[in-house]
């Protein structure tokens, strides 16, 4: 086994799910290109600590265009005083598209954080909710995943906030 990158490092795998892959309901361009590399990284045991986030929406989630009469995916509305992009239905609980990607051996994952399960809140970042508590005793976070710029902005902001209370994080 190769040496561990750092014994307190955490690999954070973000929303590696079929609905974000080509053919999925909210596909990211070439999203599946990262799957073999993530699988190799996990099998190599380069990280002692591995956490995955999983988009896990209930049917009728507030971020779904189908929940707003006359609205289409990618249109924007005002919601709770903020601009909300409406998404196609994706990562609906207990559907094939919401599962973690089958091309990855998830057995070395220490925790899976489901996010977006509150039907009233669109949650882009796994750092909010339970991940902050889990990462407090870690020094380095190494996120990997494939999502839109909004996710990265949210994840980076939340990582910065974590740095203030928990110590520095390294973002890849």
Question: Can you tell me about this structure?
Answer:
By secondary structure, the protein is α/β, with parallel strands linked by helices. The chain has helices spanning 35-44, 127-135, 149-166, and strands at residues 9-14, 49-55, 76-79, 82-85, 111-115, 140-145. The strands form two sheets. It has a four-stranded parallel sheet with strand order 5-2-1-6, with helices on one face. Helix 1 links the parallel strand 1 (9-14) and strand 2. Helix 2 packs parallel to helix 3 (149-166). The chain is elongated, with a radius of gyration of 16 Å. Mean pLDDT is 81; it is low at 157-172.
Quickly count the helices.
3
Give start-end ranges of low-pLDDT stretches: 157-172
Rg, alpha carbons: 16 Å
- % residues in beta strands: 15-25%
The geometry reads as elongated
What keyword list fits this structure?
172 residues, alpha/beta, two-stranded antiparallel ribbon, single chain, 22% helix, disordered C terminus
Task: Please give a quick description of this structure.
The protein is built from 3 helices and 6 strands; from the N terminus they run E-H-E-E-E-E-H-E-H.
């Amino acid at each position: 086994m190769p040496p561990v990158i750092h014994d307190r490092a955490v690999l954070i795998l973000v929303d590696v799910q079929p609905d974000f892959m080509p053919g999925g309901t909210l596909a990211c361009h070439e999203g599946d290109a990262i799957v073999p590399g993530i699988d190799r990284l996990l099998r190599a045991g380069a990280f002692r600590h591995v956490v995955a986030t999983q988009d896990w929406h209930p049917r009728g989630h507030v971020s779904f265009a189908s929940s707003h009469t006359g609205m289409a995916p990618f249109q924007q509305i005002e919601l709770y005083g903020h601009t909300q992009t409406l998404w196609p239905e994706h990562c609906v609980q207990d559907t094939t598209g919401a599962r973690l990607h089958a091309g990855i051996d998830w057995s070395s994952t220490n925790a899976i954080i489901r996010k977006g399960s509150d039907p009233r809140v669109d949650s882009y970042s796994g750092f909010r909710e339970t991940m902050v508590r889990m990462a407090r005793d870690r020094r380095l976070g190494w996120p990997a995943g494939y999502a839109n710029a909004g996710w990265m902005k949210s994840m980076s902001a939340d990582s910065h906030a974590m740095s203030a209370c928990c110590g520095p994080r390294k973002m890849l």
